[in-house]
Amino acid sequence: MADLQRTADELAARLGRPLLLEDRVQRVVAYSEQNGAIDDIRRDSILRRHTTPEVRQWLRAAGVHEAPGPIRTQGAPHLGLLPRVCVPLRHADALLGFLWFIDAEPPMSDAQVAEAAAAAPALALTLFHESLATGLASHRELEAVTGLLLGEPDAARQLIEAGAFPQAQAVTVYVARPRAAEPSEALRPALEQGLLAVRRRLSGHHPLHLVRYDHAVLLTAGPPVSPDELHTAMPVPVAVGVGRPRPGLAEAAASYQEARHAAEVAARVPGLGGTAEWARLGVYRMLTHLPGQELHPGLEGLLADAQYLPLLETLETYLDLAGSAVATSRALRLHRTSLYYRLQRVEELARTDLKDGGERLALHLSLKLARLSGRYLPRDLPGST
Questions:
Q1: What is the pTM of this model?
Q2: Cα(41)–Cα(51) distance, rounded to whole angstroms?
Q3: Domain membership flag for residue 292
Q4: Does residue 139 fall inside a structural domain?
Q5: I need a surface site. Which of 131, 142, 154, 352 has the fewest CB within 10 A?
Q6: Both 22 and 93 in a single domain?
């Protein structure tokens, strides 16, 4: 954007009045040193890098998007907006941005407006080249990161040679899954927004990212970063999975697969707090590779009927605590007599024997599998993971 800033400064100096340059969605791209009249809108635009929706709507209604050349707009005192001269910036009939001048104290002369209009084609061409370069770089990165996560051998080399990732540093992959009931394309902009915010904060880690319709992927170099970076930046609630670090970018696909599985576990198991690291998943590391339908046959009827949810929760906590009745009673705040009654009911309904170690193992693994498949949705009870 250096060329745009330099051109804006030169034009402002020739005209003897400040200007502001925006792209086609009215995000501030460049502005000159401010002197003379200024209103709240100009000040806020410079500070926040964009105008408010109300001001954008007012200016659109004034016809700035359709104007073939310079147009004067009236002030709007209720919005804190002074009169302006707008010079639309077009290249090959495509609107690329706007050049703005405050038209007060004193108003712009016709000669000044004409000189600003004469500068418009060069500014539009520079905007076009900047957008093209940015879009091309983003497209190439998207292709390379997609290939990298698919295990394509040349993708890592392309990213390293382009300077997007250091050659001799470890890579860690993070996956963020929206907690919405059903994933949708409508969530993609929110995921993209969050990842771009994370990339700005973690620029020293050479971050790369990719967005899919149901999850977002972040890759970082060097030591792993806190998953809280993703939780904080995302505008929608997410479950975050973290893959194990790998020694080089070429091995990122393996960390990605782990992060995807870990994010699925984080979404299904409330006790994990929305974050799961593959290296610390314990038995879930094995269960994510097993078909969710292969459950203990005695649990099918209990899983199919909501009235049995307290029995399943009691059974899971009991098995999580190595069959300790004392610890289970304490964790569930349940009288020992009530605990024994519930466990007896489980044995009767599931046609099982909790004194049999093999049965306890099959039941325990089945409950964890049912969590991952969504067939078992326990309440977030103390001691239950």
A1: 0.56
A2: 7
A3: no
A4: no
A5: 154
A6: yes
Q: How far apart are CA 251 and CA 131, in angstroms?
A: 32
Domain that holds residue 334: 297-373
| Residue whose token pair is 């370069």 | 133
Phi, psi of 94 (to 5 degrees): -95, 130
Longest dimension (CA), the chain: 95
Domain boundary (287, 317, 349) is at 287
- Amino acid letter, residue 363: L
| Number of compact structural domains in the chain | 3
Q: What's the rounded Cα separation, in Å, for the pair 130 and 124? A: 10
Domain annotation covers residue 192:
yes
Structure tokens belonging to residue 20: 């502001």
Cα–Cα distance, 354 to 359 (Å, whole number): 6
Q: What is the DSSP annotation of 77-145?
A: GGGTB--EEEEEEEETTEEEEEEEEE--SSPPPHHHHHHHHHHHHHHHHHHHHHHHHHHHHHHHHHHHH
User: What 3-state class would DSSP assign to 39?
Assistant: coil
Q: What is the CATH number of the domain that holds 339?
A: 1.10.10.2840
Note whether 302 and 310 are within 8 A (CB): no
pLDDT in tens, 169-228: 999 999 999 987 666 767 787 888 889 889 888 988 999 999 988 899 999 999 999 999
pLDDT, tens only, 335-353 = 999 999 999 999 999 999 9
283 lies in the same domain as 157: yes
**Rounded to an integer, what distance in angstroms lies between the CA atom of residue 370 and that of residue 294?**
9
The span from the CA of 266 to the CA of 222, in Å, is 24
E strands, 300-341, are none
Which spans in 203-247 are helix H?
228-233
Any idea how long the chain is?
385
Q: Look at residues 287, 310, 329 and tell me which one is the last residue of a structural domain.
A: 287
